[in-house]
Task: inverse folding
């Protein structure tokens, strides 16, 4: 089969790899119809996530048709068109029983934090992902969800990560009616978090980024006030002035690739001495009001980082963070899509053949051609 092949930082290519097979009675084999490149895939691409091994296939956002199921799979069958959450979750461990599917212990038992994730390094279990023609899906009775007949595939593929992650970012913020919410990062997740902030009653939503085309998109889609941090002398001072006492909620939707601080860039992105550049998290902590909430969905590496913990303590800030529990949120989000409350597919700006995956990464990582969200389409899905 054709599959994306990671060859080291900034080097990916399309290759032929063996088609996956059933390895466990609870497995399914899915023929991919859509897969995305996620902003967090760029953390892998840029070499910021430990134990990202040469030969791995990325891709934790995908839909596909079930081709084969193991003897222990009963909720889906051959021929079903499914969306597959990025979380690999067993459905029965202590964390899954609490609907913390992103922290499943059985799918990644050697880790003390994250559960299994498709295509996201061996720190997340070492599972190959969906930027390929076929994927082996473990625990296929738990994650895969049959796509409703009325749903567009482009909407469905964004329900595997972008929509639930953005929604959970707003949910974890504990947004109350009348709140001011600041979102750092105008990538797809940040844009979706800003859009969802209104659903929880926000009265004012502000998005901070440095790419003008992304800010323009956010201003129209969310809608939100947008500011380019490169035009601000100090983003924190500006946000304190415009909100008077600080934002009620700040959302970090950037993660390890953040720009805006030379020191953080050198330590976290160049020398890899901390788990990424934590610039956006600094800004969030310092911009939120006393007693406010900081919600983190941006991805950071597992090693330590220079975080102003004294400000967290002295301001009485609550920090909430996790991988999105996609399965928990899907029923509500499917309803929002059906009712027109959310329009996920509007985020997709580029549909690229899987065979051109290296070009897709170059375009997305370099922010070329005003790319917001690229989707890869395998050959069988184009016929």
Result:
């Amino acid at each position: 089969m054709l599959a994306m092949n990671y060859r080291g930082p900034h080097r990916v290519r399309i290759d032929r790899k063996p088609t996956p097979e059933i390895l466990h009675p609870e497995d399914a084999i899915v023929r991919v119809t859509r897969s995305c490149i996620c902003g967090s895939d760029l953390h892998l691409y840029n070499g910021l996530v430990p134990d990202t091994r040469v030969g791995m296939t990325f891709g934790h956002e995908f839909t596909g048709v079930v081709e084969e199921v193991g003897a222990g799979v009963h909720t889906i069958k051959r021929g079903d068109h499914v969306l597959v959450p990025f979380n690999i979750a067993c459905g029965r461990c202590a964390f899954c029983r609490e609907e913390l599917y992103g922290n499943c212990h059985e799918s990644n038992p050697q880790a003390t934090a994250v559960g299994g994730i498709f295509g996201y390094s061996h720190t997340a279990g070492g599972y190959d992902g969906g930027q390929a023609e076929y994927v082996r899906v473990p625990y296929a009775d738990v994650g895969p969800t049959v796509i409703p007949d009325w749903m567009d595939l482009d909407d469905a593929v964004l329900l595997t990560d972008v929509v639930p992650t953005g929604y959970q970012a707003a949910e974890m913020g504990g947004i109350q009616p009348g709140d001011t919410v600041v979102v750092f990062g105008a990538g797809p997740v940040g844009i979706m978090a800003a859009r969802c902030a209104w659903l929880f009653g926000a009265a004012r939503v502000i998005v901070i980024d440095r790419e003008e085309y992304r800010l323009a998109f956010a201003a129209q889609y969310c809608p939100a006030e947008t500011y380019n941090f490169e035009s601000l002398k100090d983003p924190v001072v500006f946000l304190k002035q415009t909100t008077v006492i600080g934002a009620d909620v700040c959302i970090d939707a950037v993660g390890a690739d953040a720009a805006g601080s030379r020191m953080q860039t050198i330590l976290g992105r160049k020398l890899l001495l901390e788990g990424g550049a934590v610039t956006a998290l600094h800004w969030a902590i310092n911009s939120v009001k006393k007693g406010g909430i900081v919600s983190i969905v941006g991805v950071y590496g597992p090693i330590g980082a220079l975080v102003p913990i004294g400000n967290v303590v002295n301001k009485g800030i609550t920090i909430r963070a996790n991988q999105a529990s996609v399965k928990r949120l899907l029923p509500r989000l499917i309803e929002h899509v059906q009712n027109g409350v959310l329009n996920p597919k509007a985020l997709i700006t580029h549909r690229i053949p899987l065979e051109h995956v290296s070009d897709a990464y170059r375009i997305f990582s370099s922010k070329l051609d005003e790319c917001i969200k690229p989707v890869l389409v395998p050959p069988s899905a184009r016929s």
The two ends are 16 Å apart (CA to CA).
